[in-house]
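Field: COMPLEX_INPUT
Field: COMPONENT_COUNT = two
Field: RESIDUE_TOTAL = 232
Field: MODE = joint
Values follow.
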Amino acid sequence: QSALTQPPSASGSPGQSVTISCTGTSSDVGSYNYVSWYQQYPGKAPKLIIYEVSERPSGVPDRFSGSKSGNTASLTVSGLQAEDEADYYCSSYASNNNIYNYVFGTGTKVTVL
Amino acid sequence: QVQLVESGGGVVQPGRSLRLSCAASGFTFSRYAVHWVRQAPGKGLEWVAIISFDGTDKYYGDSVKGRFAISRDNSKSMLFLQMNSLRPEDTAVYYCARDSSSGYWPQYWGQGTLVTVSS
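Field: COMPLEX_OUTPUT
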């Protein structure tokens, strides 16, 4: 199972929006609404910020939103804040011949200018 | 609150074995599937394995299949990863992560334990 493809970097000024794409295949992103997004600060564990394409866990600001079209999912961070500077990873459930599989994206470093 | 604490990491020579542990607390461990996910230094996340809530179903990523074995002890709220025939490319921080109630994404993560495979 190949990793989902994300842009290596994205940036924006405070208050602006940034959108990160996550491209998979018809075997993962395209077939299941089990796309998740994680935020990771250097030296820290990942934190779930979006699940099931567009749902936010309790406590995650509504500045974070997710969507999906075909084989590509997207994470949008609106009203960028300095604390949003981190690495972001998408992920997806990916059944292969009814065998459980799971795949992460290549990761995107978000810089707040 | 959900807490996951990994242990057992360290430096090991290529070809040798190592066993990681993950102690869970703050939730009913026996009701949830649990993952192992790793991250090589400076690299992205890689899914390693998952075990079902009762331990009957186990699945692995292609890069560890046949070398790693996931197991659990629900009586002690413990998760394990037996790593055999270790390679330098297995060097990574290993995280245990509790799945969501639906079983299709890691929801809560531990802080990780570093495994270094080097001669």
